[in-house]
Structure to design on (171 residues):
């Protein structure tokens, strides 16, 4: 990271990944070209994320060929004028991580992964979860991403006095 003063710890990075409405997941196609797309991920522990998709397609082809993936997320993104120098800038919180993606084949883990996704994005509709599983489990793929190294967070944010909060300083 070029500006080490903006680096944040793994806990901060996980919080950004949890709060982002989607996380861009970058993969490698079978022909070696990059492939990235925003996905709705749900995290179940310090290293494990899940997403769902169709039973076939580019994502699963990429994962089968090259399971290493790169995650990227941004929250609290706001254009601003620097309070001290009047420069045009951007306040943000971001996170990146590297992991290994695998198709989940165990039925109970598939259900647990889908439950985590539903609890994150539709927590007030969990009463319909069992019926949805009965209708769609056999037509849905679930992918587990296991982080292979700690995630990295980065932030540019100003305090109330207009000073940039560097070196992990919190509000």
């Amino acid at each position: 990271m070029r500006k080490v003063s903006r680096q944040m710890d793994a806990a901060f990075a996980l919080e950004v990944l949890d709060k982002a409405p989607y996380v861009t997941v970058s993969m490698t196609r079978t022909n070696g070209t990059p492939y990235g797309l925003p996905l709705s991920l749900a995290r179940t522990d310090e290293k494990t994320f899940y997403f769902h998709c169709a039973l076939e397609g580019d994502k699963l082809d990429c994962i089968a060929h090259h399971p290493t993936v790169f995650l990227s997320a941004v929250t609290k993104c706001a254009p601003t004028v620097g309070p001290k120098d009047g420069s045009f800038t951007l306040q943000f919180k971001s996170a990146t991580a590297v992991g290994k993606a695998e198709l989940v084949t165990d039925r109970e883990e598939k259900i647990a992964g889908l439950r985590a996704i539903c609890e994150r994005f539709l927590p007030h509709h969990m009463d319909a979860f069992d019926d949805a599983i009965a209708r769609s489990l056999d037509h849905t793929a679930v992918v587990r991403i296991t982080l292979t190294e700690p995630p990295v967070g980065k932030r540019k944010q100003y305090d109330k006095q207009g000073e940039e909060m560097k070196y992990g300083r919190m509000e």
Notes: The mean pLDDT is 90. Strands lie at 7-8, 23-28, 34-39, 42-43, 48-53, 68-81, 88-103, 141-147, 152-156.
